[in-house]
Amino acid sequence: IGDDLRIETTGYSADGINLAITGASRLVVGNRAEISTGSGIGVRANLTNQNGSNVIILGENATIVTQANGENVSAGLGYGIYAGGRDRETEAMPKVSSAKVTAGNGSFIQTAGNKAYAVYANKTGEIQLGDTQIITTGQYAHGLVAEDGSITSGATLCGILGRPPCTTSTFEGGKIHLAGDTDITVDTGKGSYAMFATGTGSSIASQ
Questions:
Q1: Model confidence over 45-77: pLDDT tens digits?
Q2: What's the chain's Rg over C-alpha atoms?
Q3: 104 with 129: CB under 8 angstroms?
Q4: Which bin fits 188, alpha (ψ -120 to 50), beta or left (φ > 0)?
Q5: pTM, whole model, 2 decimals?
Q6: What's the CA gap between 43 and 53, in Å, rounded?
Q7: pLDDT digit string (tens) for 78-116?
Q8: 168 within 8 A of 152, measured Cβ to Cβ
Q9: Burial class (CB in 10 A: 0-12, 13-18, 19+), 75
Q10: Residue 94 burial by CB count (10 A; 0-12/13-18/19+): exposed, middle or buried?
Q11: Distance between CA atoms of 188 and 186, rounded to whole angstroms?
Q12: Are 85 and 21 in contact (CB under 8 A)?
């Protein structure tokens, strides 16, 4: 996709960019992309259950703005840049380390919702940032978050009423690579941290 991409979404769980669990895709976006979501995630690479990986590469001077509260159970909502998997999937179990997002220099990421992390790498997802400015205003809306977790996979209502059982797998943490200067502004009075990493294998580190 060329320079000056413009995306604005308003519907429930409507992401700006979403590479799905059932694909193994590579998307390259040019410079100066502007992505705004009312409910969904700005830029989202899901762990894939196919051979390969979901990879998103954003050019320089991208702007990503989201409005919703953060959520990552059966729907993904509110996060700015996301790589990982939801806690509940209706598709086959995804593979480890199969989602990555790279953002070029001059990125600006802003979220307004509670628990709406600006950059969220979970369950072996990886995110690399160049020079980036981040602003969050919600409660518990951390700037950078890397964490581990588990995914429960199966059809709707699996494991009850005679339906086949659900399957649950645990995943090590996500990784955020800081390849440039990172400026983070959060409201610490609302329980928000600039950076938050938790769980086995999670990391936030400069390159």
A1: 999 999 999 999 999 999 999 999 999 999 999
A2: 16
A3: no
A4: alpha
A5: 0.96
A6: 15
A7: 999 999 999 998 888 999 999 999 999 999 999 999 999
A8: yes
A9: middle
A10: buried
A11: 6
A12: yes
